[in-house]
Write a structure and sequence with these properties.
Number of helices: 26
Distance between the termini: 54 Å
Oligomer: single chain
Largest sheet: 7 strands, mixed
Strand content: 15-25%
Structural class: alpha/beta
Bound molecules: ligand MGD, iron/sulfur cluster, molybdenum atom
Number of strands: 29
Strand order of the largest sheet: 5-4-17-16-15-6-7
Length: about 750
């Protein structure tokens, strides 16, 4: 990491694709250009426009380099001013202590945003902080994203993290619903150059079908595009499963030996015939039956659903139905189908079965929404702050999140945050959310930390391990140090407690698990001796080293000399390819039955709600979201080269609707929903289907008191002003961010 090196290789931390980057440095150690790393074992040189701007986040003059603390202002109000780290941590200790002493720990809440799931630092050290806060008010971006998939995987396979991914590189048939990897590069399916991998399916004679209310770039590159009425994928998918069962096409293949519930499934799906779902989905019955027969007939096939199938009212049913279709067509756990990765940081299992997955162990205070994965729906955060009574949230910790732009009914959340007694944000930006903070603790930039994508290698289409060193020395405490010190403060140990205690705790817990729990790869070994064998220095890297070495490909601390070590990762800047995905049944299953549960009771029970929706009158106009390649949720709009050019925060309206309503491109429309209203610039395009309008999320950078000067010059509007915090997928608590009923008029 010396400044005199001319190139630096690292994995891009920005989206889930984990592309290898090659950074060229000048003799001052400044990054001059970023290209795709052609030698990267996974991405092979692929890069997108965001990856090439990674250094611009580091050099952004608006990036906070010192903590901000709220102080009384000359005008009689208050303002955020730069402070020392000592002052900042002392202020946090005071603020949290005051709230806990007066109102108890239930008055604390925490929100973990998307970047905290990238890399390994936040993933490993966010947990001790959440634990130390000792509250059930735990929120994250998962409940505006993939929580339905965790719930369906938990109920079907026993573990919320065992999510099957489409085996893109070997499949003969890919059915994509509600995902647009041409812009997003994929999610819950880590595949650098996702578009190239899709094109390869077609090049080898396979077939790609895209289900989306918009003719996306992904749809344009497919063999077939099926327009669907937003929010109804669950109906389409269960009707397809119904067809397979009714026509005798259901054949789970050898994996069927490990499946439970096939008979219950047939009964539960009986109401959902293609005829019954055709009107609400807007897809004709013949097409639905053919889509089902096509996946059954293909030599191998994978069904893959993403944001358009999860952030909707029936997200868990849709997520489950995706894997039911994979299972019924013999594609679950077979090459070319939907398979489970075997990531290096996860320990091997030697037998199926386990405690399984529980849901709804507690509920939110104000509206009784059940927890999932230990979290409450972020949609209820505002009401938990605003509703008086015992347990009312009075203090909030955010880490790497911008919920004011990212979560539903955000005007209410924005107002609620102003009511808090105390708020601390771990974030490098002074943005729409952090402007409400009493203290902002900015971690150093991504270039100042090492990188290993714990979460995403568990979702990758090949088994990959790739660790990147930091490029620069951090200019202040590392993110791990900040999180550890917050954990110590939350535990009541004060602002000066030594973070080493938390570093040790994380490593000790991992080693203790590896020597005692489950299949304990290091059973009988001495924890202190193992600790002495660690080679990494950084606390997050030391924890990672334990996971890698005790993991399924690991050296088990010398017991398997050919196994993976941290040193080998360090010596392999372009990554280590551990091969294609391999079948995992039955050992991967941790349901109490030890079998795949095709018809989990909570999901079958929820089908009644889906059946009731078959006859509901559909709204005349609904709103959906979209993503653009040059944008990343809410937080990269301050990079000039990414946002320059044409306005991307436009309201897409179909020509028929535009004509009827008197709207034209470049004009302005007022969009209103049950909870809010905004004015957006119109883009008339037949990319969207009639009756559907689309607005991207993550915009709306016009709030006072922020420091995002580039973003503020092209603010756009916040689509989540329109999304309704009361409309959730009940099992997962995930907000419906698509299929929002709206009305439109010229502004
Ligand atoms: N309407 C609508 N809303 C949506 C979606 C949608 O499709 N439609 N998508 C949803 C999805 S999938 C997601 S994931 C969420 C995202 O929601 P959030 O995670 O709440 O928001 P982001 O925009 O990702 O904001 C990330 C924050 O992390 C900060 N940050 C960046 N790097 C670091 C770092 O290294 N450390 C720390 N501590 N902070 C960092 C940034 O400054 C920014 O404040 O939005 C959701 N909201
Ligand atoms: N460039 C870029 N890349 C990103 C991100 C980003 O903001 N920008 N965000 C990252 C994150 S956090 C995530 S979670 C992933 C998300 O990855 P994707 O899921 O691929 O994201 P989107 O591009 O939002 O695609 C969702 C698609 O669903 C469609 N849709 C909306 N409603 C429905 C519906 O009811 N049914 C169906 N079938 N389709 C529907 C939309 O038209 C859209 O094309 O992307 C990641 N990658
Ligand atoms: S596709 Fe994702 S991982 Fe790859 S360069 Fe772009 S932002 Fe980075
Ligand atoms: Mo996401």
């Amino acid at each position: 990491m010396s400044a005199s090196t001319s190139t630096h290789i690292r994995t891009c931390p920005l989206c889930e694709a984990t592309c290898g980057l090659e950074l060229t440095l000048d003799d001052q150690g400044e990054v001059t250009v970023i290209r795709g790393d052609r030698e990267d074992v996974f991405s092979k040189g692929f890069v997108c426009p965001k990856g090439t701007t990674l250094h611009r986040l580091h050099t952004d003059p608006d990036r906070l380099r010192a903590p901000m603390v709220r102080r009384p202002s000359a005008e009689g109000g208050s303002e955020l001013v730069e402070a020392t780290w000592e002052e900042a941590f002392a202020t946090v200790a005071d603020g949290l202590a005051r709230v806990v002493e007066t109102h108890g720990r239930d008055a604390l809440a925490v929100y973990l945003g998307n970047p905290s799931a990238h890399g390994h630092h936040g993933v490993l050290f966010g947990r001790p902080l959440v634990k130390a806060l000792g509250t059930r008010n735990v929120f994250s971006a998962s409940t505006v994203d993939q929580m339905p998939k965790h719930v369906s995987a938990g109920l079907m396979f026993g573990n919320a993290l065992t999510i099957p991914v489409p085996d893109l590189d070997r499949t003969d048939h890919l059915l994509v619903l509600g995902a647009n990897p041409w812009e997003s590069n994929g999610s819950l399916c880590t595949a650098p150059d996702f578009p190239g991998r899709i094109e390869a399916i077609r090049a080898r004679g396979g077939r790609v079908v895209v289900v989306d209310p918009r003719r996306t770039r992904t749809a344009e590159h497919a063999d077939e595009h099926v327009r669907i009425r937003p929010g109804t994928d669950a109906m389409l998918l269960v009707a397809m499963a119904n067809v397979l069962l009714a026509e005798g096409l259901a054949d789970p293949g050898p994996a069927g030996e490990w499946m439970e519930g096939l008979d219950d499934l047939a009964a539960a799906l009986a109401p959902f015939t293609p005829q019954a779902v055709s009107a609400p989905t807007g897809v004709d019955a013949g097409t639905i039956a053919r889509l089902a027969r096509d996946i059954a007939a293909a030599p191998s096939a994978a069904v893959y659903g993403r944001i358009g199938t999860t952030t909707v009212e029936f997200g868990t049913i849709a997520s489950w139905a995706v894997d039911v279709l994979n299972a019924l067509t013999g594609n679950l756990d077979r090459p070319g189908g939907a398979m489970w990765p075997s990531p290096a940081h996860v320990k091997a299992r030697s037998a199926p079965g386990g405690r399984g997955y529980s849901l709804g162990r507690w509920s939110s205070r104000a509206s009784g929404r059940p927890e999932a994965n230990g979290e409450l729906p972020v949609a209820v955060l505002a009401e938990e702050i605003l509703t008086p009574g015992k347990g009312r949230v009075r203090a909030l910790v955010t880490v790497a999140g911008n919920p004011v732009l990212s979560t539903p009914q955000s005007a209410r959340l924005d107002a609620a945050l102003a009511e808090l007694d105390f708020m601390v944000c771990v974030d490098p930006a002074l943005n729409e959310t952090t402007r409400h903070a009493d203290v902002i603790l900015p971690p150093p930039s991504q270039l100042s930390k090492s990188q290993y994508d714990l979460a995403f290698y568990a979702l990758a289409v090949r088994n990959i391990a790739n660790w990147s060193p930091p490029l620069y020395e951090p200019e202040g405490p590392s993110e791990v140090e900040i999180l550890a010190r917050l954990a110590l403060i939350a535990s009541g140990l004060g602002p000066d407690a030594d973070p080493q205690a938390v570093y040790d705790l994380v490593v000790d817990t991992l080693l203790s698990d590896a020597t005692t729990k489950g299949d304990a790869p290091l059973a009988g070994r001495d924890v202190e001796e193992l600790k002495g064998m660690l080679t990494a220095e950084d606390p997050a890297d030391r924890a990672l080293e334990v996971m890698i070495r005790s993991g399924q490909h690991g050296d088990h601390f010398g017991a398997r000399p050919d196994g993976l070590t941290f040193e080998r990762l360090v010596e392999s800047p372009h990554g280590i390819d551990l091969g294609p995905l391999v079948p995992q049944l039955p050992d991967i299953i941790s349901t109490p039955s030890g079998r795949v549960e095709l018809a989990p009771a909570p999901i079958v029970a929820d089908l009644g709600r889906l059946a009731a929706a078959l006859d509901a009158e559909p709204p005349a106009m609904v709103l959906v979201g979209r993503r653009h390649l040059r944008s990343n949720n809410s937080w990269m709009h301050n990079v000039e080269v990414l946002v320059k050019g044409r306005d991307r925060c436009t309201l897409q309206v179909h020509p028929d609707d535009a004509g009827r309503l008197g709207l034209e491109s470049g004009g302005s429309a007022r969009v209103s929903s049950r909870v809010g209203s905004l004015e957006a610039t119109v883009e008339v395009t037949d990319e969207v289907m009639p009756g559907v309008v689309s607005l991207p999320h993550g915009w709306g950078h016009s709030a006072p008191g922020t420091r995002m000067r580039v973003a503020a010059a092209r603010p756009g509007v916040n689509s989540n002003v329109l999304t309704d915090a009361e409309v959730l997928d009940p099992l997962s608590g995930t907000a419906a961010l698509n299929a929002i009923p709206v009305t439109l008029e010229p502004a």
